[in-house]
Amino acid sequence: MQIHKVPYAAESLAFLIGLMSLAGMANAETHASPLLKLGPQAVDSGVVGANYGLFTCQVLGLDPGTTCYDPYQIRHAYQIDTLINAGFTGKGKTIVIIDAFQNPSLVTQVNTQDSFYGLPGMNGLGNPPDPSLGTFTQVAPDGLTPFVVGNADMTGWAEEISLDVMWAHAMAPNANITLVLAKSDSDADILSATRYAVDHNLGNVISQSFGENESCMASDLLVQEAVVFAEATLKGITLFASTGDEGAGQPTCDGSALVKAVSIPASNPLVTAVGGTELHAARYCLAALGCNPAANPAPGTYQGEIAWNEPQIGATGGGFSVIFDLPFFQERTVPGKQRGLPDVAYSAAVGHGLLTYLDIPGIPSGYYLFGGTSAGSPQWAAITSIADQKAGHNLGFINEALYDIGQSHHLYSTSLNDVTSGNNSFGGVTGFNAGPGWDPTTGLGSPSAENLVGNLIQLVSPLDGLSALPANAPFTQGNPSAPGRLGPH
Q: Who wins on pLDDT, 23 or 99?
């Protein structure tokens, strides 16, 4: 069902011009944080699966206390493998990843992980050119900041870059990936990098695995960001952002405490906000270890999810905005009068982490378990690139179609995994409970990609993004300008 359509693009363009007229106020320096959680280093099991080594945390009968997943398990759990096997690999599409600072060892890391798992390589990483492969490009529009070994902030962003690039590539193995690096993690610098990506049409989908308390972003930057997101939406670019790793709380602007709040850019209604789950999927059953593969599900078989909440580690961000009104696409689903988030979810638990190779200066090289809502944004971006390839055109704004799916019992049950248990109370901040349908912990749920992609292609309309533009106008009255901090989720 399509509702609240704007009949003429001119009306949305007029709205955009109105937003731009508000964007000239003085900047106050605020910052973003990467939204990831780095777990322990994985332990080699000493045995090999079909074509690659396995770790104790992914083999039945070994390391029962910790679970981890490789790209093939995640693909199978979320039915991405069915699309890839049918030739829908993101080929011809470009995923733009926005991050800060740099990762000086990224080329080595990506090539190592690709080689280990037998994934297609990418042009632009020192490999012989191959037209069948996607291309990796790194852009630093405002200059590349030198990496300082031992700098915790830069190291955190380097880890974020690793997770974003390698897992977007693993889920859309033939898509192009363009990494756009801000010179710092200040809001102004990250917005500059995002604006460059939009102005230069660098890709069909943008992933943002960072955020901060939405009340800590300066009013002028809120408006400027809204302008950039409106321009992206008018160009048919899909926007994703992670919702945060501290449950229903976000740090205060000085970082001294957690308060009930949601994260921006995820709270902007033009963005598809991605929360976190604890994914339960099948381990490898190895006959060499006395396990009967015929009596056990295939590795990665979906076995359920709960809202991500690991005490002392992190929990899925979610709640209600104080900056944005309830957008029209949530009117039939979300209670109250404010923008609710997340919209969707993805695997984020460290104790059920994603295997990711690191070789960053100052960190012992090897495979680590990664979690955090950062994991979801680039992988949802990958699924959308696959959908764009299959559709033969860019879907652009998908939020209305997602909520239309949520209103149909048949479409919902076949397109999304509804996560109905758990909560996001964390760090002394009382959060929300998961339940049937949309909730402020895991949104509408995680992807069942094969059917989801087909249904999005059928339901998305070019007018959807135009209709959503007015919801993109933030309240800026009384918004604090004290410095906040954006970081990886």
A: 99
